[in-house]
Amino acid sequence: MLYVPAWSDHVEEMRWIEPLAEEGMGIVVYERRGTGKSDRPAPADDNYSVERMSTDAIELADSLGLERVVALASYDGAHQAVRFAAERPKLIAGLALVGPLLARRQSRDADDVGAPDRERDAVRPAFRRRPRYGKPARR
Question: How far apart are CA 14 and CA 128, in angstroms?
Answer without folding.
Answer: 31
